[in-house]
Hints:
Distance between the termini: 40 Å
Largest sheet: 7 strands, mixed
Number of strands: 11
Helix content: under 10%
Amino acid sequence: EVQLVESGGGLVQAGGSLRLTCAASGVTFDDYSIAWFRQAPGKEREGVSAIAVPDGSTFYADSVKDRCTISSDNPKNTMYLQMNSLKPEDTAVYYCALRWLIGYTDVGRGALREETYDYWGQGTQVTVAS
């Protein structure tokens, strides 16, 4: 069974940086994407960034694309989200999620849509103080 564990959240001052880690276990083949979503209090969960393992394609929400970098260490089934120039509005619980890409001819299709993801981690809190 696939399990995802996030780490790396915490409290940081505005303008600071954090690196979130998502460790995946139970993954038996490499045809999948990992995405980061976030949910702030009183708001809907939104997609932040995603990476397709087969070809390394990356996808970003407009709100973070100049400040975040997603990467993967495929042999370790571990993905990272480097977040820089953090803002108070980045405060949220951050979740990683995995979807299989079997049948996808376009790995970017729905990359930041939560309904396309099959497995979810428990989340890690990111708080950015002003």
